[in-house]
């Protein structure tokens, strides 16, 4: 089952994309849990900022 | 004999045989881990509020290990990418680069297991919790005794008599003669026993010899009582006391032995990092404050106030939400002195507890308190016995760890013994690496699920 070099590179590229996505989403999940205000608090902080600004 | 379809695909399946095999194996693995994940869900969903012990907050359970768990996730994801790169290099007939990437995979596997070992060691040997009779949970670390290197859960007993069992098991006798040598004699006290005939025997080895002789001369006797010439003070680890329970006038030991005399101290010294009052009816009257003092209580009250006044929480409460008890009724001391599970720093963390048995919590470090064992409902290291969460946590992470070790061994075999096969048929080795890589991806995938549910949720 020989594969061409292009096929393999394409395969590798897909895996790299999957790996990068997993890394990013794992990071986001950890941040949501340990620093919730950074992400989940965003709408609240925005509302407070807007209220203060008005 | 040449085994068919190791390289070329079968016409009926469209795959080489090993690939069919690994997918079937992975299907069975999915069923194994699927069952465990389902078990986790049922255990967690089945907790009855106010009746069962609350499911612990993962952030408090793991503390800094959340970041190590995160690191392990990155390491496994990277290793999965490396295994694909190793396979690609083989396909392109670059054996040197294949070796390089496969080595990186093995380094990642080793790093994962090292972190896991550090984490397990911390939980099993350093972290300790005690649930008091009113439901308070005090979590932290046992305090080491500088003199005896004995953990904080020891019993001090002044013995005037010893009752020795003369059982004829023989095997145990050779391993641990009469089971007194684990005890620490306090303040250099000498053990001198007056035997029934009036003979004085000095020291534990001599006592063991004398008991051997006595047992052989008196085969019908099952027990013998000897008096200590002067009362001797012993310290025992609680786990060496039979049933872990001591009485005011006697300490039952394993295999039928017993010490008689007077109980001096039966307290447990804990450096308290976290107080959890989720199971306490009246927080103000919690038993915790009798030990931790006003300083710690002020910290707890302040934490609760801050949580309730937090804009995010207030906005949630205004919409009719209720904050879970874990958010309000658990407080972690801001400076747990030995949180990393390494050194116990009893001196700096005592916070005024001294010998009185009551810590103040007003110092900079977490307070050390001496808790009466009669106030303790349950205590132990953060091992599988500490609660349902810990049981499922150790079951699943240990099983996953075994898979990491198994997968790494297979990949190491391909790395170190693959050259001969590569020379003979490089495509065959590439197929083997592909199959091993599929297993490695599965191990990675299990961790991707395991990490958030065990460390974050």
Description:
The complex is a heterodimer of chains A (about 55) and B (about 450). Helices cover about 85% and strands about 0% of the residues of chain A. Chain A has helices at about 5-35, 35-40, 40-54. The longest helix of chain A is centred in the middle third of the chain and has 30 residues, at about 5-35. The model of chain A has no long low-confidence stretch (mean pLDDT about 80). Chain B has 3 domains: about 15-125 and about 385-455, Cytochrome c oxidase, subunit III, four-helix bundle (Four Helix Bundle (Hemerythrin (Met), subunit A), Up-down Bundle), CATH 1.20.120; about 155-270, no CATH class; about 270-380, no CATH class. Chain B is built from 13 helices and 13 strands. The chains are: A mainly alpha (about 55), B alpha+beta (about 450). The interface of A and B includes residues 1, 29, 34, 36 and 37 of A.
User: With helices defined by DSSP (H or I, 4 residues minimum), what is the helix count of chain A?
Assistant: 3
Averaging pLDDT over every residue of chain B, what do you get? 83
Low-confidence stretches of chain B: 170-178, 339-363
Characterize the main sheet of chain B: 7 strands, antiparallel
CATH topology of the largest domain in chain B: Four Helix Bundle (Hemerythrin (Met), subunit A)
Percent helix of chain B: 40-55%
């Amino acid at each position: 089952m020989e594969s061409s070099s292009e096929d393999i590179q394409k395969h590798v590229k897909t895996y790299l994309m999957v790996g990068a996505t997993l890394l990013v989403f794992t990071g986001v999940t950890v941040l949501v849990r340990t620093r919730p205000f950074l992400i989940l608090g965003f709408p609240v902080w925005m509302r407070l900022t807007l209220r203060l600004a008005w | 004999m040449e085994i068919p379809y190791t390289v070329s695909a079968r016409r009926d399946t469209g795959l080489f045989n090993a690939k069919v095999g690994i997918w079937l194996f992975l299907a069975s693995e999915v069923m194994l881990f699927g069952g465990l994940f389902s078990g986790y869900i049922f255990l967690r969903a089945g907790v009855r509020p106010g009746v069962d012990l609350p499911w612990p907050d993962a952030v408090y359970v793991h503390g800094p290990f959340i970041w190590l768990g995160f690191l392990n996730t990155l390491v496994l994801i990277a290793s999965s990418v490396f295994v694909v790169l190793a396979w690609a290099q083989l396909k392109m007939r670059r054996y040197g680069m294949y070796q390089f990437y496969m080595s990186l995979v093995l380094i990642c596997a080793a790093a994962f297991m090292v972190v896991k070992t550090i984490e397990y060691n911390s939980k099993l040997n350093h972290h300790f919790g005690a649930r008091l009779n009113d439901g308070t949970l005090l979590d932290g670390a046992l305090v080491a005794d500088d003199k005896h290197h004995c953990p904080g859960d020891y019993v001090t007993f002044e013995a005037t008599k010893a009752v020795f069992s003369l059982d004829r098991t023989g095997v145990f006798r050779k391993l641990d003669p009469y089971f007194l040598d684990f005890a620490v004699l306090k303040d250099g006290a000498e053990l001198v026993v007056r035997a029934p005939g009036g003979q004085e025997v000095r020291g534990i080895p001599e006592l063991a010899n004398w008991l051997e002789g006595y047992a052989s001369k008196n085969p019908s006797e099952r027990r013998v009582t000897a008096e200590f010439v002067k009362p001797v003070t012993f310290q025992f680890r609680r786990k060496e006391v039979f049933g872990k329970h001591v009485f005011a006038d006697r300490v039952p030991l394993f295999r039928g032995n017993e010490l008689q005399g007077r109980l001096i101290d039966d307290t447990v010294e804990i450096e308290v990092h976290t107080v959890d009052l989720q199971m306490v009816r009246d927080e103000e009257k919690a038993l915790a404050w009798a030990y931790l003092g006003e300083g710690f209580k002020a910290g707890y009250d302040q934490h609760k106030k801050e949580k309730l006044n937090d804009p995010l929480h207030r906005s949630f409460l205004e919409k009719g939400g209720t904050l879970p008890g874990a958010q309000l009724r658990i407080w972690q001391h801001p400076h747990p002195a030995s949180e990393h599970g390494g050194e116990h720093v009893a001196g700096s963390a005592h916070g005024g507890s001294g010998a009185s048995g009551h810590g103040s919590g007003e110092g900079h470090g977490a307070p050390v308190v001496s808790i009466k064992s009669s106030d303790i409902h349950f205590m132990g290291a953060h091992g599988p016995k500490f609660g349902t969460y810990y049981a499922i946590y150790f079951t699943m992470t240990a099983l996953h760890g075994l898979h990491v070790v198994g997968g790494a061994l297979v990949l190491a075999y391909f790395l170190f013994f693959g050259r001969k096969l590569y020379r003979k048929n490089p495509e065959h080795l590439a197929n083997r690496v592909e199959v091993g890589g599929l297993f490695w991806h599965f191990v990675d995938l299990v961790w991707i699920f395991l990490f958030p549910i065990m460390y974050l949720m």
